[in-house]
Amino acid sequence: MLRRSLLVLLSAFALSCGEDSAAPGTQAPGPLPAGEWTWVDLPGSECSDGSPTGIAVNPGPRADLLVFLDGGGACWDALTCFGIGQIPPAAKPGPFGAAEFEEKRSEIPGSLLDREEPGNPYREFTLVFVPYCTGDVHAGDAVQDYPGAGERYHHHGRANLATAGDWLLARLPAPGKLVVSGASAGGFGALLAHDALRARWPSAKGYLVDDSGPPLVSDDFSPALRAAWVLAWRVDEAIGPVCGEDCALDLSRIVPALRGRWPQDRLALLSSTQDEVIRAYVGLGPAGFERALLRLRDERFAPLAGAATFLVAGDFHTMLGSPARFTAGGMPLVEWLRRQVEDDPAWASAGP
Fold first, then answer.
1. CA within 20 to 30 Å of 40's CA: 2, 6, 218, 337, which one?
2. Mean pLDDT in order along the chain per 10 residues (352 residues)
3. DSSP string, 79-146
C-alpha cells in the first residue's frame, strides 16, 4: 500500500513551464532572438526512450544566466520506470522536444521564468529551461535493462546537462552571475549539478536555488533510496568529484562541500515543512519529515555563511512556479530571492 501511494504521489513530483509569447523556434545559425524562447536541439542528448532532446533559451538584456531544471518524478526499476496496470510510471518519460516545450509554455506566466512577473529578480537574465525526461533527477548516466520491463531505460540526465553546459559555454557571453535552479526532481538536480555547471564559469558569482529537493541528513534520507540512485543512475559519479563517499552515505554533506569548493556562492533551499510528495518519496510521515527538514537546516545550512533556507508551514510541493504566493516569517519569497542574487547582507534563513 505504501509503495502504491508513493508511486501515485511521485506522478505529481514536478514543476512545469511555458510562456505567453510567440511559438518557440528551433535552433538556427547566428544569435538567438532576444526576449524570445527558442528551442535548441542538442545532438547526443537523450530522453528515457533514447529519443533526442535539447533546451529552450530566452536571451535577456544582461549576460547573467539562470539555468532552470524541470521536475517530474524519479524511477529506478521496471515498476517505477514503466508502471504496471493502473499504476503509472513514477517519472516523466521521453520524448521531449520542441513540441513538448510548446505545451509547457502555458505555465511560465507567474513563474521565475516570467520576465513580466513583478519583482522577478531574474527578469533581465538570459533564461534557460532544461527539460526532464530521464527519471534520474538530472544526475544519471546509465542505460538500464530492468528485469521484466521489455525495453531499455536511458538515465541520461547528467550527460544531457553536460551537453547543455557545453553548448551554453560556447554560444553565450560569459555571465557575471550564474543561478542554477530547479524544482522537485529539478531541485535535487540543481543541487547535484551545481558544481559541474559552476565550473564552466568559474569567474562568475554563483547561486543555487533548490526548490523542494532537500538532501536530508544521513538516514533521514532512505538508505534504500540512496542505494537505488547509485545502482540505477550511477549518481555516485555525479557527486564523487564534490565530496566522494561522504555524500554517497549522507547526501546532506554536499551542502558544506559545495560551500567549500565555491566559498563565495550563495546556496538556498526552499521547502514546505511537511511536503507531501517528498515525505512520501523518502518514506517519512508529516512530523518525521518536518523534524528531518529542520535537522537539515540546523546541521547543514545554519553553520554556513552564504547558505540559507526558506521554509513555509504546510504540505504543498514546490514554490518557483508561483513565487509571489509565498511568504516565510513575513519575508516574501521574491524579495528573499532578490536579496540572495544581489548579495544583500540582509539575506538570511526565513521561516520556522
1. 337
2. 41 37 46 93 96 97 96 95 90 95 94 94 98 97 93 96 97 96 98 97 98 97 92 92 89 97 97 97 96 98 97 97 96 98 98 92
3. HHHH-BTTBPPSB--S--SHHHHHHHGGG-TTSTT-TTSTT-TTTTSEEEEE---SSSTT---EEE--
Element (H, E) at 225: helix 223-233
Cis peptide before 95 (omega within 30 of 0): yes
Place of cell 513580466: 116
Nine-digit cell at 229? 540512485
| pLDDT of 126 | 98
Domains and CATH numbers, the chain: 2-341 (3.40.50)
**How many whole angstroms separate alpha carbon 211 and alpha carbon 199?**
22
Q: What is the spatial distance between Cα 17 and Cα 19, in angstroms, rounded to a whole number?
A: 7
With residue 18 as reference, give the H or E element that holds it. none
pLDDT, residue 305, reads 95
| Angstrom distances, CA of residue 304 to CA of 109, 226, 266, 307, 308 | 34, 25, 10, 6, 8
